[in-house]
Fold:
Amino acid sequence: MPASISGSVTDNHGRPISNVRVLAFHEPTGSTFGKVTGNDGAYAFEMVKAGGPYTLTVEVDGFLPARRTGISIKTDQCHVEDFLMEMSG
Structure:
């Protein structure tokens, strides 16, 4: 099984947020991959390059953007990274 990154994006009430832009940046290669969450707030990057570090950024209108850095993934690992977004303004 190749390496992957997946997770969910919710608000402070635990409700899933759809249409969130999720970007995965692989620092060693400078490659960026993008996904958008579905109605269930889930996203998945399948068959990503093992190693890292990766930076994940999530953004959607009405919420403050969030970022995670220094994510390293082992071969055959499914790394889960969930986000709780705070409303802006």
